[in-house]
Structure of HEAT repeat domain-containing protein:
Amino acid sequence: QNNEDREVRKAAAYALGSIGGAGAVQPLTQALLQQDEDEGVRGGAAYALGKIGDNATLPALTQVLLQQGEGTGARANVATGLGEIGGGGALQALKQCFLQHNESEDVRWYAAFALGKIGGREAFEALKQVLLRQDEGGSVHQCAARALIKIGGGDVLQALTQASQQEDGAWAQYWLG
């Protein structure tokens, strides 16, 4: 936290995530919640908190994920971290982010990936909902499809077939083979 070199602070955040332990949570949370001016350091802190996997960090991670003014890189790392933590709190935050059409496409891509990692019916339904929207960007559709396939189940083929029949559904043909 006290080093002037942002690369040193970012490396320290990643190292704390690898080491883990309760003592790492407080400084990483402080760095994440805008106490470090560098987005890369905040992103490293988010990644590290996800790797540690402490549910006590969910409020801070959720706050940053849903904060529109925060940088895309930090929020993408938060989405990844929430995917590592998993559970109901992480799932709700990721769904809220992913379903917002006005959200950054990059952040939504990472949220979709994290939803696929968490899995379950609720994640599947959120991914399917976005998959079937015709006004989405291509990368969001692609990642939603990839996440649905990761979750698996009999409904994946049906969702992809339905998406392929839409006006802009040529991209879904790729996933159908």
Q: What stands out?
A: The chain has two domains: 1-102, 119-177.
